[in-house]
Design goal:
Serine Threonine Protein Phosphatase 5, Tetratricopeptide repeat, elongated, 0% strand, 3 domains, mainly alpha
Length: 216
């Protein structure tokens, strides 16, 4: 863990140390020599509650360490104090963790909170809608799933793998509706993305066995 990450992790404790140092200097000397310590303490405490330790989560998520990521999120005592963009990311990640545990109700609530706050980065807007659509697919609410996956496709997804997965889900939705022409069109679009993720490739192979026999 680099120096900056260490300061993020322990800045509340650093704030307490600076405050203590300020009080001691103020007691033995006067206010102005103690002012830098008070100022540093204020910055440390405010940044802890307004920004949280969100930077620390990235490494855990990249390594697939969901328990490590959860511990960082659990260390945020008052998420309501986080500034709006950071709070949106907080709820987005909470939704991700709930989805991994197949807790679809919590995943839905957290993602709606994230979207309601406004997605902080435009490139993640499509991913947020897509995740919500996936949640509704798992809950077998095809109407809501279609609505949010359409929004995801319109907003744009971060890469061809996610785009292909979104088209495949739309294909499945339209097959369930027995609108086979539309289903085939979405399947064609998914294949055009040339995905390489094993899960998506396998899904294409499975659907292809069935869809090739469908008229229309």
């Amino acid at each position: 863990m680099n120096f900056y990450n260490l300061t993020v992790k322990y800045r509340l404790q650093l704030g307490a140390i600076c405050l203590t140092a300020g009080v001691l200097v103020n007691y033995t000397s006067s206010f102005w020599p103690a002012f830098p310590f008070y100022f540093l303490a204020l910055i440390a405490v405010l940044s802890h509650f307004l920004f949280g330790p969100m930077r620390l989560i990235q490494e855990y998520m990249e390594n697939g360490d969901l328990e490590g990521a959860k511990k960082v999120l659990d260390s945020i005592w008052y998420p309501g104090l986080l500034i709006k963009p950071v709070r949106s990311v907080y709820y987005f990640l909470r939704s991700n963790l709930a989805l991994f545990k197949q807790d679809y109700d919590t995943a839905e609530i957290m993602m709606k909170k994230s979207i309601g706050l406004g997605v902080p980065m435009k490139e993640t807007e499509g991913a947020a809608y897509f995740q919500l659509g996936t949640i509704y697919m798992q809950k077998n609410n095809m109407k809501q799933a279609e609505e949010y996956i359409r929004k995801a496709i319109r907003a744009g997804l971060p890469d061809k793998e996610n785009t292909a997965a979104a088209y495949l889900q739309m294909c499945q939705i339209f097959m369930n509706k027995r609108e086979f022409r539309a289903a085939k069109d979405y399947f064609r679009r998914a294949k055009e993305q040339k995905p390489t993720t094993p899960q998506v490739v396998d899904q294409i192979k499975q659907i292809e066995k069935y869809i090739s026999r469908i008229p229309g």
